[in-house]
């Protein structure tokens, strides 16, 4: 049996398009310092560090070496994870494994990315096999646009449904002091007037490129109870992978195998049969509005073809039955190596009752997901007990 | 913080120094047995081949040694059509540096996931058409081969709408 593991503290930078005032190490230091302060710990209290970053974006080899003083790692056990969009959840899950297994008591997990220092779409395009897909790919935007076209065709969701997701995200982000894109007055009409990046995905249907870092402290049950009045207990974790090529599962967004598998696994572990009823809040990894709509189906929030209705009825808004991404989500902030960890940290803040203006009252059970690589999914359930 | 240890830059708002770095390197990848045969056939005979999994009978393009679903060896080569159906498509308007060339990729361009007749999986390729209103999931397309072929996926110039 795994030991019980709690998230006891989080720290984030103010995510933004360009942090030209500081370097990568200083960016990491900001998030780490905030997490340690939140826990009332010093670096000497940390047994091991898990790091997450995507090296091709900044063009650093071994960013953990470059930044070792930023995360206080000298002489400590450490590992780095590099799994695409799921980096942050992979890193958090690895930290969970080490505490749950009893190997370490207190672990610092850090995800970071300074996208302004490199070429995001070019780096992402190298995900594609150079013989086959790299020639046509246009970063994440092109891939998601192709997937979205299939999903639109099969589900009947409209541009208006997608625009409503864009508005929900950027308005929710106004309640999150760390979010990058905060647009309190954004309207559906403005989203529909934004140009196509790649049909059917418009500029405001897609996430921004952000600089940011996120850190969390995870601890064993006895330590967690001392460090936080209400830890966010990790109830279940799952990761699920996909086949290599985009065309291997052509209904990739419409029928996301990895997301269905990972979510069903954590739901089963927690006895969740109706996620909209049983969960109180979800922080999901949606890089595009159409992805969020498709994920409503794949995560079991609605029946096939009903995702448009879900947003029309406001089920996933702050006042709905299952608020999705109170933080603004990835559509408001995407600092890739940190992004999936931000989903976990935001879910943890909800469970700890520390989410401020974006708090879902009485949040008892939360879902966090990561999505990336070639359509891999990570999922975690956090709870108050 | 005492006077002595005070940061001399404190209070002064300075733009951080930035250091440019240009990466220009060439890579050369081995295609492997399966892709080598695929591209030789494409170059020499203008024909497109996949491999069938004896377990689930899926015909894979790109061809590969192992079926991920059955976790078993594939093997039998199967010729597929040069026509197929669009499974997903887009027209890219966003500029970016093409890692294949180091130059900005010309935009707009259309590309799609295309399931060739006789194949189970689908292939990324360029579309001739760049008007999204004329494209659509389910439309049929045909490969346009280049007269001079070099043994790359671009021996097919693009796919043309049939309807």
Can you describe this structure in just a few lines?
The complex is a heterodimer of chains A (385) and B (163). Chain A is an alpha/beta fold.
Please describe what this structure looks like:
The complex is a heterodimer of chains A (385) and B (163). Chain A has 385 residues and is α/β, with parallel strands linked by helices. Chain A has 2 domains: 5-120 and 210-232, Thiolase/Chalcone synthase (Peroxisomal Thiolase, Chain A, domain 1, 3-Layer(aba) Sandwich), CATH 3.40.47.10; 121-206 and 236-383, Thiolase/Chalcone synthase (Peroxisomal Thiolase, Chain A, domain 1), CATH 3.40.47.10. Chain A is built from 15 helices and 11 strands. In chain A, the strands form 2 sheets. A 9-stranded mixed sheet of chain A has the order 3-2-4-7-1-8-11-10-9. A two-stranded antiparallel ribbon of chain A has the order 5-6. Chain A starts with a strand and ends with a strand. With 163 residues, chain B is mainly beta. Helix content of chain B is 9%, strand content 31%. Chain B has 1 helix and 10 strands. A 5-stranded antiparallel sheet of chain B has the order 8-7-6-9-10, with no helix packed on it. A 3-stranded antiparallel sheet of chain B has the order 2-1-5, with helices on one face. Chain B has a two-stranded antiparallel sheet with strand order 3-4. In chain B, β7 and β8 form a beta hairpin. Chain B is globular. Chain B starts with 31 loop residues before the first helix and ends with a strand. The mean pLDDT of chain B is 90. The chains are: A alpha/beta (385), B mainly beta (163). Chains A and B meet through α5, α6 and β5 of A and β6, β7 and β8 of B.
């Amino acid at each position: 049996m795994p030991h019980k593991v709690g998230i006891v503290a989080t720290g984030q930078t103010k995510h933004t398009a360009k942090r030209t005032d500081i370097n990568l190490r200083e960016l990491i230091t900001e998030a780490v310092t905030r997490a340690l302060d939140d826990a009332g710990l010093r670096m000497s209290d940390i047994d091991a560090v898990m790091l997450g970053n995507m090296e091709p974006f900044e063009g650093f080899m071994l960013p953990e070496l470059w930044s070792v003083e930023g995360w206080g790692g000298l002489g400590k056990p450490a590992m780095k994870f590099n799994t695409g969009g799921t980096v942050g959840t992979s890193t958090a899950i690895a930290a969970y494994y080490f505490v749950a297994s009893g190997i370490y008591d207190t672990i610092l997990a850090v995800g970071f990315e300074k996208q302004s220092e490199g070429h995001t779409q070019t780096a992402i395009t190298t995900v594609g096999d150079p013989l086959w897909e790299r020639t046509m790919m246009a970063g994440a935007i092109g891939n998601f646009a192709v997937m979205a076209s299939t999903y639109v065709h099969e589900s009947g969701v409209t541009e208006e449904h997608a625009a409503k997701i864009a508005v929900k995200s950027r308005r929710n982000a106004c309640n999150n002091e760390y979010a990058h894109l905060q647009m309190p007055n954004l309207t559906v009409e403005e989203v529909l007037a934004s140009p196509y990046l790649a049909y059917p995905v418009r500029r405001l249907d897609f996430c921004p490129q952000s600089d940011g870092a996120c850190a969390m402290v995870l601890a064993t049950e006895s330590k967690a109870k001392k460090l936080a009045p209400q830890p966010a207990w990790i109830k279940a974790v799952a990761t699920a992978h996909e086949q290599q090529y985009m065309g291997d599962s052509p209904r990739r967004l419409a029928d996301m195998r990895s997301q269905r598998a990972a979510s069903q696994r954590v739901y089963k572990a927690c006895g969740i049969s109706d996620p909209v009823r049983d969960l109180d809040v979800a922080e999901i990894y949606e890089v595009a509005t159409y992805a969020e709509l498709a994920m409503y189906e794949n995560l079991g929030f609605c029946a096939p073809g009903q995702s448009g209705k879900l947003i029309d009825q406001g089920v996933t808004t702050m006042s709905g039955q299952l608020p999705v991404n109170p933080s603004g989500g990835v559509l408001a902030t995407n600092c890739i190596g940190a992004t999936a960890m931000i989903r976990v940290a935001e879910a943890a803040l909800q469970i700890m009752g520390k989410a401020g203006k974006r708090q879902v009252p009485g949040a008892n059970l939360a879902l966090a997901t990561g999505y990336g690589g070639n359509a891999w999914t990570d999922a975690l359930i956090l709870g108050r007990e | 913080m005492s006077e002595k240890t005070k940061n001399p830059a404190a209070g002064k708002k300075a733009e951080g120094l930035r250091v440019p770095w240009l990466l220009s390197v060439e890579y050369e990848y081995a295609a492997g047995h399966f892709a080598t045969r695929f591209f030789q056939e494409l170059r020499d005979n203008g024909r497109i081949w996949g491999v069938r999994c004896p377990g689930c009978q899926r015909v894979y393009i790109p061809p590969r040694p192992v079926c991920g679903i059955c976790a078993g060896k594939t093997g039998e080569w199967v010729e597929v059509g040069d026509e197929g159906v669009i499974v997903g498509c887009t027209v890219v308007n966003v500029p970016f540096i093409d890692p294949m060339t180091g130059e900005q990729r010309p935009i707009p361009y259309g590309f799609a996931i295309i399931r060739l007749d006789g194949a189970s999986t689908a292939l990324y390729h360029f579309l001739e058409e760049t008007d999204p209103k004329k494209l659509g999931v389910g439309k049929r397309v045909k490969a346009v081969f280049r007269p001079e072929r070099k043994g790359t996926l671009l021996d097919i110039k693009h796919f043309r709408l049939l309807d």
